[in-house]
Amino acid sequence: xxxxxxxxxxxxxxxxxxxxxxxxxxxxxxxxxxxxxxxxxxxxxxxxxxxxxxxxxxxxxxxxxxxxxxxxxxxxxxxxxxxxxxxxxxxxxxxxxxxxxxxxxxxxxxxxxxxxxxxxxxxxxxxxxxxxxxxxxxxxxxxxxxxxxxxxxxxxxxxxxxxxxxxxxxxxxxxxxxxxxxxxxxxxxxxxxxxxxxxxxxxxxxxxxxxxxxxxxxxxxxxxxxxxxxxxxxxxxxxxxxxxxxxxxxxxxxxxxxxxxxxxxxxxxxxxxxxxxxxxxxxxxxxxxxxxxxxxxxxxxxxxxxxxxxxxxxxxxxxxxxxxxxxxxxxxxxxxxxxxxxxxxxxxxxxxxxxxxxxxxxxxxxxxxxxxxxxxxxxxxxxxxxxxxxxxxxxxxxxxxxxxxxxxxxxxxxxxxxxxxxxxxxxxxxxxxxxxxxxxxxxxxxxxxxxxxxxxxxxxxxxxxxxxxxxxxxxxxxxxxxxxxxxxxxxxxxxxxxxxxxxxxxxxxxxxxxxxxxxxxxxxxxxxxxxxxxxxxxxxxxxxxxxxxxxxxxxxxxxxxxxxxxxxxxxxxxxxxxxxxxxxxxxxxxxxxxxxxxxxxxxxxxxxxxxxxxxxxxxxxxxxxxxxxxxxxxxxxxxxxxxxxxxxxxxxxxxxxxxxxxxxxxxxxxxxxxxxxxxxxxxxxxxxxxxxxxxxxxxxxxx
Length: 703
Fold this sequence. Notes:
This protein is an alpha+beta fold. The chain contains 24 helices and 20 strands. 33% of the residues are buried.
């Protein structure tokens, strides 16, 4: 029994490919051996799976459809005994499909509508490989016959009016659809395609074509059943009947170029698209170059999977205003660093954040993300002072599109073209044992990130040290100080303005608030003296000194979150900092930033949002604190909701990284131990000398 369950589980692609899209799915009545049961059906490839519900991942059963006979049951004739035995269920359904696998008993599917029956029958027949060319719409039958002829270029079927460009509107969809509502949407899609192709693109009014493409593709993402239909319509509108074999309008190919970067058609329509692209690809013509790009984009979508969001305005403009054939990575966006520099990174429609970061690291001279601890952030589309860390498996184009849509929704549906997404690259996870391999660029950016913490008051420095640190970064940023500054100097002088700029960028804000005009001049004079003393020192040397000083603080590299104690051993309503670092979580005093409490990750039981607060459940080690009667303690901190999410994900990342590093260390050390201390398998004392097995402690759970 267990083996059969494992075989079914292994055979279902939903377990191995979470993003897989069934060709057909729906709640149907299944009849087998005279018993009826309402089940969720999903057709994936050439297999029909049955589930208890839509949410289930473990199938109740499956049918291999290849070479099975699929046909509609005529209810006017004598019904099979199995169907008669199901009784009342038969009265609820108006249509019946019989599936007869080879050397197996038949299975019946009961359906309520003609549209649903036609759609299921067509897709089941295609999966079975039987009756291809005899089922479905006229367009689908023509494609089936071409498939049987292996796409013979001399076949007269290619000249059929239904397969070629038409100025007239469609009277019915090209593909079989399961409901009248989807059929209506299919006809609207064709009108959108006609408008996109027939209305000439005008650069000042290009947002008209952007809106057409986005609305059509959004409908197809919301209703995947229409994706085959859209591809068939675009293939039809990019094939000319006269002159024969000539590619259709350029704007039709541009629309197709947008589609293949998002999703792909299924089964025979995928074959039709491949034949269509192969026939018209030509690097000598403008249209042919778009076709070649479509082929490249199709391969990338096959490798990386389908997209989640419609194309952004930036993506559509890039496709429409310049031929993407000339660039293997047709899109580009600047990535900003904390030292006010940026790096332009190119990508395509299927590039993931991991691939994007890998290219960024290579271009900017940095190590892999897993070693450097740097991550990509995006600003908040609402304009709030928030940043969002990007997950590695998400596609960059989806991120830009969702950001753009959120910004558009904020402005009552109007696109704000003046504001675009801002990507920032900075350190997220800091590990002290990774210092040895740091690149010069990493050290520079880490110094500027430390400066951000100093300015914001998240890093403890006295006034004297603050001036020293500011002078070091001034030497990095501006080089040698030009001329000495005296306290009696003019506020309009160049040296005064430069020193004022250094204070604004590199000196803590809370120290500047209480400074009088006279104290400011003395501070500037002191800064100029410290800066002048660094004359001749290189940028890399100053960065090294800066980080050497900064790393003396025990919580260097930690991320600080402002919070208010709700329930804990600390004073209620006290403002504190929660410092998340490689060794655990520490509670720091808000004013002095001195340590109050600290918990290692191994003593962390549970963490995450609890109603509107952030919760930590910690375990107290026996003997460490006799005053603690309970083995565990629940700590609640009031925080902003976005910060609760950020701190929860950051703690998770540190814990996961620690487990990964232990696994790697164990994997590397195990062979060495075996070589260093070989053990004879014939030894009688083998069992007694074996070390006792250690049971791993339960990992903390995230709420």
